[in-house]
Amino acid sequence: MSLPIANAPAPDYPALAARIRLLAREAGFQRCGIAGIELGEDEQHLRDWLANGLYGSMEWMARHGEKRSRPAELIPGTLRVISVGLDYGRNDDDSAWDTIADGERAYVARYALGRDYHKLMRGRLQKLSERIGEEVGAFGHRVFVDSAPVLERALARNAGLGFIGKHTCLIDKHGGSWFFLGEIYVDLPLPVDPPATFHCGSCTRCIDVCPTGAIVAPHRLDARRCISYLTIEHEGSIDEALRPLIGNRIFGCDDCQLVCPWNKFAKTTDEPDFRARNDLDRATLAELFAWTEAEFLQRTEGSAIRRSGHARWLRNIAVALGNAPTTPDVVAALQSRRDEADPVVREHVAWALARHGVA
């Protein structure tokens, strides 16, 4: 953090907070709020979740201890958190369900169809920080977009951006859940916004629809069963009992958001960076399975998908092909990689072929 200017007059913080919300809109964010740094209840919830091993192999979730729930320990001097939201909704729920129902097509989570949002959001947050600096002079701050141990949903809830649904995603009752989150930790004693209140009521659609039963209770996600975790974070073999439940979801899963009634209020965005690339919103499994590693790297440049790596990409598609209808194209695609060098891919291909009765 940089140091404030000595002897500078204290800003009018309520006016500055209002100005920050306006600047956030001008920077391209649809939501902005200000939260304090007290996260006691959320810290206990996190401790319990970690103690029960529900984080799977995501050791980084446990590695940072209480810094995740104590912003001032992560960045000394932090007094407030400016939380922002950026819409990525496509208003294509029917198309998404159609893809999930078509066993020969690939389903990619809506957030990953276009460019990786991290760079776009970070750039906008940096510009927002610069604009704030123009108002108050030098001030201590750090920008985060999934780049540090931050309890972003709890902070966003406390900043009034939305409530945490039973599926653990953040929901804006005026705009659904299709939006990304980012934060600026600041050393400015800004007035805080009222936290969002809970509005799920008795609805359990997200819990009921989860293909693998990963939402084991309201606000409790077992990552070890979550398709997003299994297809993106998890390395090695996927549990055979879970493979048939994954269907054709090859990178992430949106079912709990697609079924949420609050998303009838979601706003459609036509942000160019979020438009689907490589026809990922309509491609077949066989087409994507044919990508060489060089082609995978070229086509996923600037995409969140690249972080999975080519081998994991093939593993995921092999599972989906195993769940697909038995057609000549599906079987031929699997047979083309039955001797794949990577043993994990080879194992999943063999499993998929056996599902189609091919030895």
How does this structure look, described?
The chain has about 350 residues and is an alpha+beta fold. Among the domains are: about 15-90 and about 115-185, NADH Oxidase (3-Layer(aba) Sandwich), CATH 3.40.109; about 285-359, Leucine-rich Repeat Variant (Alpha Horseshoe), CATH 1.25.10. Helices cover about 40% and strands about 10% of the residues. The chain has 16 helices and 10 strands. The protein has helices spanning about 15-25, 40-50, 60-65, 70-75, 95-100, 115-135, 150-160, 205-210, 225-235, 245, 255-260, 285-290, 295-300, 310-325, 330-335, 345-355, and strands at about 30-35, 80-85, 105-110, 140-145, 165, 170, 180-185, 215, 220, 250. The strands form 4 sheets. Strands 1-2-7-4 form a 4-stranded antiparallel β-sheet, with helices on both faces. Strand 5 (about 165) and strand 6 form a beta hairpin. Helix 1 runs antiparallel to helix 6 and helix 14 packs parallel to helix 16 (about 345-355). The chain is elongated. The N and C termini lie far apart (about 60 Å). The model has no long low-confidence stretch (mean pLDDT about 95).
